Amino acid sequence: MKFYKSKYIISSGEKIFEDCILVVQDGKVFDIVRNDKVPENTEVIDFGNAVITPGFVNLHTHLQYTDLKPVFKHNLDSCHCERSEAIHLINDDPNMDFSDWIISLMKQYFFWSEAKKIKSFKNGLREAILSGCTCIVQLSREEYFIDILKILDLKSFVFLETFSNSEENSKKEIEKLKKQIKENSSKNVIIGISPHSIYNVHSSLWEEIARFSVEENILVHTHLAESQDETNWLNNKPSGIDKIHKLVKWDNLKPYESGLNPVEYLEKLGFLKLCGENLTAAHCIELDEKSLEKLVNYDAGIAYCPRSNILLHKKNLDYNKLPQSICENTGIGTDSRFSNYDLSILNEARWIKNSTGLDFKKLLDMLTINSARILKIDDKTGSLEKGKDADFLVFNLSPSVILSKAKDLYQDILNKEKPEEIYIKGTQIAKSGKFTAEQWKFLNEPQ
Ligand SMILES: [Zn+2]
């Protein structure tokens, strides 16, 4: 057994313990007990004036795009720490729209070698984990990223990206996906499917994926209602999507029925009824409250990527106004570095707090348990409860923080650049911004 003492322990968004000890056995949370309940002469690791929190989840990212030449100017005032208002995000090229951004991404990434993609992925992985993630959701097409994640004792999900413009293509894609999932299954990585978006996936592939998802209980992750372009495409109106389709010679891909909104489009296909509970929809900024409610009533989850939404679309969901049922089904993602300034989940959370004032408890739930529930691993992680894996972070606290003001405690966490220590299944993997566990050390140097 191991004993970790800390001034405060946040076991979940609402439960804060003071002067207690986190007891870990076989990598799992055994108990949280008061200081004086520990037998004498027990070896206790004392973090001092610190707080232990559950590990965070990054619910939507594409780590392979980390080294792409950025298109957004980094406003230094907006990124770091205590003094930051963090609301000034700047698009370097005001004329660049969403489709230009996608095309710019495709044109850069397409010409990269496998080695360069792997290097970029590893750089992203380092940044994402050191910001406090003990679980990540990665979206990509390449199998070699799975091989990197397989050797790490991390909770990782890889959603294999798929695209299709015809029935014939859909058949090929689903066969390929089935094979990839079978061949790459491993205890450390859960593989799901990511039909890229409504406008890049033929309706027949959506149907195939729905059947497969139900049969094999496979999770599905898509970009949904992210842009006005998508809405226009669904209504057969001129749209930036046409530019993308033209580039890849996909002029024949049209909505199976026009005039539906993105949720209705998946609903009418039968997708939501069949496997809504397996679905995570990223962005959703073009949906009104009624459509969001419909989505979560089908038990789908939402990946909220606020900085990406602002940079690309100047728009966000307002979680201060949305009903609790929608908040509870939402987790936070950074998206890729190509539509963000960095991959820090902590910077993402600070940005949300500073620019929307969202309640701390809601915010912490979105960083932890909500995503764990969406990924169906809330029995293993997402909070520090008995029997769950001991995935936790340690933040050093400023001397002035006292529990009588819980909000000061939460704010102090958000003011940090990174957690001081990161533990996964009770093993320390990083300290002071460096990986300490052997299996992680290869990520210490920038690639
Ligand atoms: Zn994305």
- The CATH homologous superfamily of the largest domain is termed Metal-dependent hydrolases
Give me the CATH fold name of the largest domain: TIM Barrel
CATH architecture of the largest domain: Alpha-Beta Barrel
What's the domain count? Answer: 2
How many E strands?
19
> Termini distance?
37 Å
- State the share of residues found in helices, binned by percent: 25-40%
Number of helices: 16
How large is the share of residues in beta strands? Answer: 15-25%
Shape call: globular
Query: Largest sheet, if any?
Result: 9 strands, mixed
Radius of gyration: 22 Å
Name the structural class.
alpha/beta
Low-confidence stretches: 76-89
The kinds of small molecule bound in this structure are: zinc ion
Task: Please report the first level of CATH classification, the CATH class of the largest domain.
Answer: Alpha Beta
Average per-residue pLDDT, rounded, comes to 93
Describe the structure in brief.
The chain is of the alpha/beta class.
